[in-house]
Amino acid sequence: MDSSTIFLVDDDREFLEGMSARLRSFGFRVEAYPKANFFLDRFDPDRPGILLLDLRPSRSAGLEVLDILREMGSEYRVLFLTIHPEIDRAAQAVETLRNFLLCPLSDEELAARLQDAVIEDRRVREERAETEDVLRTIRSLTRREREVLDFALRGWTNRTIGRTLGIKEKTVETHRGKVIKKLAVKNCVELTSKVLLAGYRPSSTDGSPPKRR
């Protein structure tokens, strides 16, 4: 298994001990908490892992954690254990529920579902880290490099950009080359794709190249 941790929060100590032992037998790293505040005191959203909660009505600690994470705006990955095929009550409690584990589950099913969740969590974290890296690199560009980038994203040619900024076409080409190098891409097509996928948008203009005089 990787560095991800399965976090259990439940006020039933027998459940915590039994489920912890079961998950560890699959090779997962497990941390179990009998109270919501115990978990929240150590909660780190940047730490890879899955929060596994039992949604049976008699359990309050798990839903308490879930409510607080929602208030925090956290997108931490959560899986829900339930013994009920119909989950209306749970749905009312948590708004969006898409990760249910309908019990009882065989060891093979439980291990597979958790591993799938760990893999998905890793993918999301890697994408988020890459996005943050791209945006951080853009913020580090010089003012002129950012201007050239913004115009390049609109498909403007070096000549048009140069005329707009009052600089030579060769100078635009140099700035564009530096941007491409800093963002670790091979060409303008890759540059545009990488930057836009990261959520960056050019500074506001009408988007029209200047007319020839």
TrEMBL record:
4-aspartylphosphate modifications at: 54
Residue stretches making up the HTH luxR-type domain: 134-199
UniProt cross-references to Gene3D superfamilies, sorted A to Z: 3.40.50.2300, Winged helix-like DNA-binding domain superfamily/Winged helix DNA-binding domain
SMART domains referenced in this protein's UniProt entry, alphabetically: HTH_LUXR (SM00421), REC (SM00448)
Keywords linked to the UniProt accession: DNA-binding, Phosphoprotein, Transcription, Transcription regulation
Domain Response regulatory per the UniProt entry, residue ranges: 5-118
GO molecular function terms attached to this record: DNA binding
GO biological process per UniProt: phosphorelay signal transduction system; regulation of DNA-templated transcription
Keyword hit for Transcription regulation: yes
Stated name of the protein: Response regulator transcription factor
Species: Eiseniibacteriota bacterium
